[in-house]
Design a protein that fits this description.
- The complex is a heterodimer of chains A (272) and B (406).
- Chain A contains 13 helices and nine strands.
- With 272 residues, chain A is of the alpha/beta class.
- In chain A, strand 6, helix 8 and strand 7 form a beta-alpha-beta unit.
- In chain A, helix 4 runs parallel beside helix 6, helix 5 crosses helix 6 and helix 10 packs across helix 13.
- The model of chain A has no long low-confidence stretch (mean pLDDT 95).
- Chain B has 17 helices and 14 strands.
- Chain B is α/β, with parallel strands linked by helices and 406 residues long.
- In chain B, the strands form three sheets. In chain B, strands 3-4-14-9-10-13 form a six-stranded mixed sheet, with helices on both faces.
- Classes of the chains: A alpha/beta (272), B alpha/beta (406).
- Chains A and B meet through helix 3, helix 5 and strand 6 of A and strand 2, helix 2, helix 9, strand 11 and strand 12 of B.
């Protein structure tokens, strides 16, 4: 079993929900990202989704776009992101890291080199936002051979037959997009989330986690109650936006930036 | 799919999954997949119905003013000394460019799909105007995304869109140009996918856009083929068209692809020169990658970030190109070349002075290359240039470059 699968299995055995924060590598700079990743685990993150910057993030809302722009202003690349993971692994062997981003940087690096470097760095999973299963051919195969999980998205617009095909290829966890829109939008329709998750449960035993629109303890609690875990992205990136671009932030400042994750941890650990 | 099967597609792409060899495909977020699949389904059905095409043809004839003439540019030909140059006059279409052929077609699709809201991206504003025009014609709501930079550069077109009832939304993200406008349109579409139709302005984007935009633009090449046979008595020896996303070029080229004696030249925006890196010529100087829903040649750096492009013409200022062009390049069927800003401006003036036709700066790229090409050919040979748009929109740009205050 992979680290990612182990974490999910253990959480399930403990009846604990998965907490997955998202941040952009290099926002506001690589040193701060590394400190933030450690702080996120202190606050209870089980898995970290680490965004690698891309100039044209067409599925992201304004908050994450700005985070990506801050990273790109530092010229942070996919290669730098992989190096960040390697450095994180020097101190942390337990928290899973899922790389999240768009396909072009991986295409240009080359699938073979990407997979080899990711494996060596200690990446556990990869989620490519603009690569649906039908276009995932050889990258998917290479990741599988390297025992890196490939996470796919299911959206409210995904048809039942597509969902079946997606869960076939997906491993680690299934990412359920809670709403029609981009990251950071407001989540309003809790009813359809519950129905769609129930339908997905019929198709798969994969852990199902919900992302998009989760921004505080209340929304964390509401969504965690319906799934195996939650992802918090834009709300965290909005906090990171307030950090100055210096290499050294004191512990209190990092803790305050990530406190939303600690609050969410507490909320989802006390669902009843 | 095996390599042999991939290559057997030849000029008959895309395959059932939307690929032209290794290019094209559907690379979008999951939220949009069902929308592009629905569009592909509807298009496959409607494009098989003769009534759909007669509705389209009727609009082109009575609303757009087709067929557009094939005009023998005698004085320009004489000046170049060599092949006879003919202009396919897309500049005479309603709204002044080839763009409207596509927006008419896609607006019909939107109507058949029961969508009430149109969105579009635009660079120079030509596609935005063409989209706002058909939205007004059909009584649909229209929102046009345009880079904040381009809004400043193309103020008259912004006002035209507003007059037509469209809302123009300034895009402040990224490089604040066409590619960012396309990102923003994709975000809007993901959010309003239930009632919204996205009219993409060129032969790029996820399948089925490269196919359906091409099919709507092929009226250019079909007419040019017939007109050549009638007016010249034979097929032309060469076709020349500018390539940004590549919709006017594919529209002219496609009906001739199997005529192996007809040479084809796609002219990209060479900007300050290919070696300067300030250009918009992915086929001439880029590499394959993935952007805006398809795999194609891109202007991308070694880290996979999309590079900022430069061209004197806003309509060609885009870092990607339609996937079918990528495929035709690899097949060696079309020669992709570039014309610089300076060559383009020269051609703009030449055509204006010699023929009394002010060409769009986009189309002036094609004129610039065709003039060199003509000089290398014999007088009994013929070139057809796609004059894809008129230049009224560009006179301020030209004046500014030449230090003239209007």
């Amino acid at each position: 079993m992979s680290r990612l699968q182990n974490i999910a299995a253990q959480a399930s055995a403990d009846q604990r929900k998965l907490l997955i924060p998202y941040l952009v590598a290099g926002d506001p700079n690589l040193e701060t990202s590394l400190s933030l990743m450690h702080e996120l685990t202190n606050q209870g993150a089980d898995i970290i989704e680490l965004g690698f910057p891309f100039s044209d993030p067409a599925s992201d809302g304004p908050v994450i776009q700005l985070g990506v722009e801050r990273a790109l202003a530092q010229q942070v690349s996919l290669q730098d992101t992989l190096e960040l993971v390697r450095r994180f692994r020097e101190q942390n062997q337990t928290t899973a890291i899922v790389l999240m981003g768009y396909l072009n940087p991986i295409e240009i690096m080359g699938y073979e080199r990407f997979v080899a470097t990711a494996k060596e760095a200690g990446v556990d999973g990869v989620l490519v936002v603009d690569m649906p299963p039908t276009e995932s051919g050889s990258l998917h195969e290479r990741l599988r051979q390297a025992e890196i999980d490939t996470v796919y998205l299911v959206a409210p617009t995904t048809t039942a037959s597509r969902s079946a095909a997606i869960v076939e290829r997906c491993s680690g966890y299934l990412y359920y997009v809670s709403l029609k829109g981009v990251t950071g939008a407001a989540l309003t329709d809790h009813q359809s989330v519950a129905e769609n998750i129930a339908a997905l449960r019929e198709l798969t035993d994969l852990p199902i986690v919900i992302g998009f629109g989760i921004k505080d303890a209340d929304s964390a609690k509401a969504m965690a109650g319906q799934a195996d875990g939650i992802i918090i992205g834009s709300a965290l990136v909005a906090k990171i936006a307030d950090l100055a671009d210096t290499d050294s932030h004191d512990a209190a400042e990092l803790a305050a930036t990530c406190s939303l994750i600690g609050t969410a941890r507490e909320a989802i650990d006390n669902l009843n | 799919m095996s390599e042999a099967e991939v290559h057997s597609i030849g000029f008959d792409g895309p395959d059932a999954s939307g690929h032209f060899g290794p290019y094209g495909g559907i690379f979008v977020g999951e939220t949009l997949i069902s929308a592009v699949e629905e569009l592909a389904e509807v298009y496959t059905r409607l494009s098989g119905e003769p009534e759909f095409w007669s509705e389209f043809d009727k609009e082109l004839q009575h609303y757009v003013g087709r067929p557009s003439p094939l005009y023998h540019a005698e004085r320009l030909s004489q000046e170049c000394g060599g092949a006879a140059i003919y202009l396919k006059r897309e500049d005479l279409n309603h709204t002044g460019a080839h763009k409207v052929n596509n927006t008419i077609g896609q607006a019909l699709l939107a109507k058949h799909m029961g969508k009430t809201r149109i969105i579009a991206e635009t660079g120079a504003g030509q596609h935005g105007v063409a989209s706002a025009t058909v939205a007004a014609r059909l009584g649909l709501e229209c929102f046009v995304y345009m880079g904040a930079e381009d809004i400043v550069r193309q103020a008259p077109n912004v006002y035209r869109m507003k007059l037509l009832g469209a809302e123009v939304i300034a895009v402040e993200s990224g490089s604040r140009t066409l590619k960012d406008a396309m990102n923003e349109a994709l975000r809007d579409w993901a959010t309003n996918v239930d009632n919204t139709y996205y009219i993409i302005g060129t032969v790029a984007g996820p399948h089925p856009y490269p196919q359906l935009v091409r099919d709507f633009q092929c009226v250019i090449g079909r007419e040019a083929r017939e007109q050549s046979l009638h007016q010249i008595g034979k097929l032309p020896d060469a076709l020349v068209a500018c390539v940004g996303g590549g919709s006017n070029a594919i529209g002219l080229f496609h009906p001739f692809l199997k005529d192996s004696a007809v040479a084809m030249y796609g002219v990209e925006a060479g900007g300050h020169g290919l070696e300067s890196k300030q250009h918009a010529a992915p086929l001439s100087a880029g590499i394959p990658g993935v952007l805006h829903g398809n795999r194609t040649y891109l202007m991308t750096d070694e880290g996979g970030q999309i590079m900022e492009t430069h061209s004197v013409s806003a309509g060609l200022d885009y870092p990607g190109v339609g996937p079918e062009h990528a495929w035709l390049k690899d097949l060696d069927r079309v020669n992709y070349v570039a014309a610089t800003d300076a060559e383009t401006l020269q051609a703009f003036h030449k055509l204006t002075r010699l023929e009394g036709i002010i060409p769009a700066l986009e189309s002036s790229h094609a004129v610039a290359y065709a003039m060199q090409l003509a000089a290398s050919m014999r007088p009994d040979q013929n070139i057809v240039i796609n004059l894809s748009g008129r230049g009224d929109k560009d006179i301020e740009t030209v004046a500014r470059i030449e230090g003239i205050k209007l």
